[in-house]
Automatic annotation (TrEMBL):
InterPro entries hit by this protein: GntR_C (IPR011711), TF_FadR/GntR_C (IPR008920), Tscrpt_reg_HTH_GntR (IPR000524), WH-like_DNA-bd_sf (IPR036388), WH_DNA-bd_sf (IPR036390)
All copies of domain HTH gntR-type, residue ranges: 16-83
Name under which the protein is recorded: GntR family transcriptional regulator
Native organism taxonomy: Bacteria, Pseudomonadati, Pseudomonadota, Alphaproteobacteria, Hyphomicrobiales
Chloroplast keyword on record: no
Top-level taxon of origin: Bacteria
PROSITE patterns: HTH_GNTR (PS50949)
Protein species of origin: Mesorhizobium caraganae
UniProt entry keywords in alphabetical sequence: DNA-binding, Transcription, Transcription regulation
Keyword Transcription found: yes
Alphabetical list of SMART domains matching this protein: FCD, HTH_GNTR
């Protein structure tokens, strides 16, 4: 008598860990523009590059597709999500809505321990080894902003900011090819820490919004000067 086929086995802990590692590897390279916007990739190319199995690749690609960092295209495989001038505007417009509100809530709930956490995160940005690499610098800036966001006590708000920071960090990496934003971003961090220290709850949202607009303007100018955007409508920058 032939035994009935068993249901598909649940993924093992090792499978889950491999999938998570593949996801983080791919995401890191997409955000840092090691995998360039608009670049086409097949599952075989990804497998060869990262030495990971097809099933693991597909799981990671599914998550990245859901997050808008990769697009699946019939007969072409996968394409790293391209960036246009419209995309950049929308990314920073969304960040300009989410980040100020997250920081406002965080400032309203901040404690001395929370202040110490964000001061420490800001200090890590200034380490010599961090300042030598734009990848390390932007990762440290991201960690600083998420450390502040987590003080809001609202995990959903923090998660929303995390997602939009993925998108804006990718744009910043492209912008860094034409202009160095390091000192501008460091200055913004100092302003945010000071606003938290003096408990300017109502002012911190206004400050964060103003900072986002300033950064957006600088990034757009750098991208346009360096011709790093695809399908850009230059007139919309007026």
């Amino acid at each position: 008598m032939i035994a009935p086929k068993s249901a598909a086995a649940s993924p093992s802990t090792a499978d889950i860990l491999r999938s998570e590692e593949a996801y983080e590897q791919l995401k890191s390279d997409i955000v840092a523009c090691v995998l360039r916007p608009g670049e086409s990739l097949t599952e075989k190319q990804i497998g060869d590059r990262y030495q990971i199995r097809k099933a693991t690749i597909r799981s990671a690609l599914a998550r990245l597709t859901q997050e808008g960092l990769i697009k699946s295209e019939p007969r072409r495989g996968y394409v790293i999500a391209p960036l246009s001038l419209r995309d950049v505007n929308e990314i920073f417009d969304v960040r300009g809505l989410i980040e100020p509100e997250v920081f406002r809530v965080a400032a309203a709930n901040i404690t001395e321990r929370g202040l110490d956490d964000i001061r420490l995160a800001a200090q890590k940005v200034l380490k010599p080894e961090t300042l030598r690499s734009h990848v390390a610098f932007l990762a440290a800036d991201r960690a600083f902003r998420l450390a502040l966001a987590e003080l809001s006590g609202n995990l959903r708000l923090a998660r929303l900011l995390d997602q939009i920071l993925d998108q804006s960090e990718r744009v910043l990496h492209l912008g860094f090819k034409s202009r160095d934003f390091t000192q501008m971003i460091i200055g913004q961090q100092k302003e945010l820490v000071l606003a938290c220290e003096v408990a300017e709850v109502s002012a911190i949202a206004k400050l964060a919004r103003s900072q986002c607009l300033s950064l957006k303007k600088q990034v757009l100018e750098a991208l346009l000067a360096g011709s790093k955007l695809q399908d850009a409508n230059l007139q919309s920058f007026a």
